Amino acid sequence: PLCSLGVGRCKCSFWFAVAHDILGIFIMLVGVFGGLVIHDLFIYAGAIIIFLSLIWWVFWYSGNIDVPPEELEDDVGLIKLKNHRLRQVARHIVNMKEPITDCK
Asked: Which pTM value belongs to this model?
C-alpha cells in the first residue's frame, strides 16, 4: 500500500507535489512533441506548474523535520527570564497596594 512507501508524515503534500510534477511534465511534453500551433503556451504552462509544485515540496519537507523536544525549549533562557521579571513586577504591585479608604 501507499503507507509503506515511507513518504513521511505529510502524505497529502507529497502526493500533491508528485501530481503537479507529473501534470507539468505531461503538459510540457505536449507542447514540445504535440505539433500544436500554441506549443509555447503548453511549454510555459508546464514549467509554471512544475515551479508551483515547489510549494508542495517545501510543505512536505518542512512538515517532516524532526526536532527533539529538548531543542524546542528556549535555549538562551529568555522566556524564563521574562516570566521571572513578570512575577517580580506582579509582586511589587501587590506589595504597593494600599488599602482602600472611604472618602467622606
From this structure: 0.61
